[in-house]
Amino acid sequence: MGFFAQHDWEGRTYLGGWIELGATADAVSPSTGESLASFAVASPADVETATDLAVSAQRTWASTSPEERSAVLRRAAAILEDQRGVLERWLQDEAGSAPGKAAFEVGLVASELHLASATAMVPYGQVLRSGRPRLSLSRRVPVGVVGVISPFNFPAILAMRSIAPALALGNAVVLKPDPRTTIAGGLLLAAVLEEAGLPVGVLNVVPGGTEVGAALVDEPRVPVISFTGSTPAGRAIAERGGRLLKRVHLELGGNNALVVLEDADVEAAASAGAWGSFLHQGQICMTTGRHLVHESLYDRYVALLSEKAARIPAGPPASGAPLGPIIDAGQRDKVHSVVTRSVDAGARLTAGGTYEALFYAPSVLADVAPGHAAFEEEIFGPVASITPFSTTDQLVQLVNSSPYGLSIGILTGDAYAAFELAERLSSGIVHINDQTVDDEAQAPFGGVGASGTGVRFGGHEANIEAFTETQWVTMQARIAEYPF
Ligand code: NAD
């Protein structure tokens, strides 16, 4: 199977090898509306088949040496790095990623594979003290089959950040990618891992929508679900999984604040703010949704950010434009509805607010206040909302009033004061003197509140916590003696 040979996987999925199923669907370019490829669509019954395959392949996979598992992941990283253009192109064509975003994502996927290849080799337990003459230890064992459900926006990394560590630790995986990014977020990842030597059955891809995801959550032989997506879908999945006492890792939405303190360099702040709000058309869980700006810098910041927004073009990735399309018309309409409802409620549109086809102009809303849609909701589009504040207490209240808690940026001339301020903010991630969007394979990534309840992604410790179970084992030379 050639990783780059579309005719090898066209019309199929990876389910115990490359197979056709009854139904197919098309991968569609959000830039042009043209069909890019077709793929097989799974049914709930196919989820059962995928789980059968995964359950039987997992035992052998878990008993292969850690060196071997590590080597598969290392080879996958090398294949991806050697042929990075293939995945980059699909991220551009299918997911509407600008070239820089696509390249960044492929780098992250490779980095995730490298990290997971090391996770396969690190210590996985502790020797415990015991009051009795015996060896007492705790060790982490694979959970068995991990179900991964992933979104469209960074489809490759948000699938691979669960797949790679789960495989490294001896699990099998059933992946349900978002139907809008089945190729970049599903089939190509399977093709790379297959080419790297992953045995058949250890990873299976079940393309489809909500009903296929729900069947995966309901499948009793899948004890861990790793979900990345919206908060409403996360709630539904947690409820379903809870009934079956599953461990459900949830990485959900955000409404992230970029705080511009009184002593910040306002020009640098506006540049960072533009990146935080507009990168990948704002379709990132860590996107800067709310710019909270000290009143002394407010007018200048609004003017600078609005000028920048007006100069950043959106266009097809092939044109080299820094911003691409919104993923589909439904999502675009949601973005536009937040803008119009906020303007109706009293916010001031200082840039953008228009669209052509799926290309939404980078937009700025000033004078946004609590209660406005742009302040309260995750927009998931290229819209920066700006709110002034005067005191630190007011700022803390504004930041923490959001039910979300994923990422916060604090821009300031006094980094230590921001470090102290960070302790008062409800957020899984805080960047001082940077905007809100960042990820590294080795850093603990995740949110609090409506942004997620799972363990963190990133680093060996988090990988092991997420994708293994703890087993306490004692061992002594002879059978213990008892008075009975
Ligand atoms: P979504 O929740 O609609 O879909 C995500 C995935 O879940 C898709 O594969 C979808 O088919 C599946 N799905 C949806 N409902 C389901 C259900 N009831 N049962 C089983 N599967 C179901 O998400 P979206 O709107 O496409 O993606 C954007 C959202 O994802 C945003 O809210 C964004 O903030 C969030 N996100 C979070 C992170 C993070 O790490 N915290 C990263 C990226 C995106």
Topology, pairings included?
Layout: H1 6-9, E1 13-14, E2 18-19, E3 23-28, E4 35-41, H2 44-63, H3 66-82, H4 84-95, H5 99-119, E5 125-128, E6 135-142, E7 145-149, H6 155-168, E8 172-176, H7 183-195, E9 203-205, H8 210-218, E10 224-228, H9 231-243, E11 247-251, E12 256-260, H10 266-278, E13 288-294, H11 298-311, H12 329-344, E14 348-351, E15 355-356, E16 359-360, E17 363-366, H13 373-376, E18 383-389, H14 392-400, E19 404-405, E20 407-411, H15 415-422, E21 429-432, E22 448-449, H16 459-467, E23 468-475
Parallel strand pairs: 7-8, 7-10, 8-9, 10-11, 12-13, 12-20, 13-18, 17-18, 20-21
Antiparallel strand pairs: 1-2, 3-4, 5-6, 6-23, 14-17, 15-16, 19-22
The protein binds nicotinamide-adenine-dinucleotide (NAD).
CATH architecture of the largest domain: 3-Layer(aba) Sandwich
Radius of gyration: 24 Å
Bound molecules: nicotinamide-adenine-dinucleotide
Q: Would you report the number of β strands?
A: 23
Strands of the biggest beta sheet: in what spatial order? 14-17-18-13-12-20-21
Specify the number of helices: 16
Mean pLDDT: 97
Under CATH, the topology of the largest domain can be stated as Aldehyde Dehydrogenase, Chain A, domain 1
Biggest sheet descriptor? 7 strands, mixed
DSSP helix fraction: 40-55%
CATH class of the largest domain: Alpha Beta
Structural class: alpha/beta
Tell me the strand percentage band.
15-25%
Q: What is the assigned CATH homologous superfamily of the largest domain?
A: Aldehyde Dehydrogenase, Chain A, domain 1
Please tell me the total number of domains. 2
The residue ranges in which pLDDT falls below 50 over 5 or more consecutive positions are: none
First-to-last CA distance: 63 Å
The 3D shape can be described as: globular
Oligomer description: single chain
